[in-house]
Amino acid sequence: MISLSALLISVMFVQMGIGSLRPFDTISGQALGFTPTQIGLVASGHFAGFLIGCVCSPFLVKRVGHSRAFAAMAGVAVMSIIAHPLHPDPYFWAFVRVFSGFAVAGCYTLIESWLQAKVTNNIRGRVFGVYRLVDLSGQLLANGMIAMLTPASYVSYNIVALVMCLSIMPLTLTQSKEPALPEQVSFQPLYAFSVSPLATLGVLVAGISTATFGSVGPLFASAVGLSLSQIALFLIMAILGGVCSQMPCGMLADRVSRRTVLFGLSVLATIISLVLTTDLAMQNAGLLPMAIVLSFLFGFSTFPIYSVCASHASDFVQPQDMLALSASLIFCYATGAIVSPLIAGWLIEVFAPYAIFTFISVAHFLLMLFTIYRNFVRPVVRRSKPTAYVPRTSLFIANILRGRRSKSQSQNASEY
């Protein structure tokens, strides 16, 4: 129990450290006079590093083990954070954010693999439910932190770095035995498209939505007149919306067609994005309450899309192909997350802050149309797998999940 608590505490501090860096970089860049396109470039650097970390971190773990690898990656993240005030230049920040993205992907990969090795099948769902709750709680605290930090301040970046340093201690001091890693398999980035074009487009749109909102959304909030503390609340409400929708959407997707749920989420996301695009909704006496409600609904409609799409794609593959599917979906998600902040920043610079939600609404509208089209091309399949939260941080976590699940099924079959 103590070692499991150490894992969860490390997750909390990782999310608080790197999670606060993304919106804080946007606010700090704005204070330093960065253009929206340059701010988008900084965010894109993070997701580029994130994708690299997903692919490369297993090799580092195999070389030095879980604890040393985690300490090394957390150290890289700390160096990336404290390097920001040394040279306040957007291109330098984009460069160092590649390292922070690499580090956070590696940290989550290690924590998730360690967590999978420590729990049994009969409590796995409950443990990962707690893990997801801790992860989201870290996101909430991270967004709350930026309300107490001074933009572009050397002290502020040191505070974020100190929080990230705290993540090293619980995991490296635990006496729990490190788990063995599964064998690495070949990476097929386009495998998901051959399995389910709809799921591929869905996770791509999910990457566009969440990366644009989390990275460039503070520019929009600032443009409509929200203060620093109100911007933090604006971001927090989106996460709360996602928390509230994950379970209901998963349960609904198990009872009706997953395409129906995906279509409904896309319709709602399109409508909310269009409302945010029109400044009429923001230019009234209820500015903050309106922003909070719309942010909550935005998170409610966009956060569950990845898990619904991953579950939809898994209906068409065999258990032995789940790792390749998981890796491919992560690649598609990261691709959308890499390019979207840069595009969103350019749209703000050329048009207006509201243009980012025009961009998001177009993406969801296309997903909505494609969902309708796929209903005519491929009939709905009979599902055998329940919808579940799917981690987006590792290319080999699915292998652990599938391996243990198959072993459990084999043991159950032998009993009869």
Q: How would you characterize this protein structure?
A:
It is a single chain. The protein has 416 residues and is mainly α. The chain has two domains: 1-174, MFS general substrate transporter like domains (Growth Hormone, Chain: A), CATH 1.20.1250; 182-400, Growth Hormone, Chain: A (Up-down Bundle). The chain contains 16 helices and no strands. Helix 1 (2-31) runs antiparallel to helix 2, helix 11 runs antiparallel to helix 12 (287-302) and helix 13 runs antiparallel to helix 14 (322-350).
Q: Shape from CA axes?
A: globular
Using only C-alpha atoms, the radius of gyration works out to 21 Å
Q: Per CATH, what is the topology of the largest domain?
A: Growth Hormone, Chain: A
CATH superfamily of the largest domain: MFS general substrate transporter like domains
Strand percentage, roughly? under 5%
- The helix/strand order is HHHHHHHHHHHHHHHH
Main pleated-sheet profile: none
Low-confidence parts: 400-416
The CATH architecture designation of the largest domain is Up-down Bundle
Quick one: CATH class of the largest domain? Mainly Alpha
Quick summary of this structure?
With 416 residues, this protein is an all-alpha fold. The chain folds into two domains: 1-174, Growth Hormone, Chain: A (Up-down Bundle), CATH 1.20.1250.20; 182-400, Growth Hormone, Chain: A (Up-down Bundle). 78% of the residues lie in helices and 0% in strands.
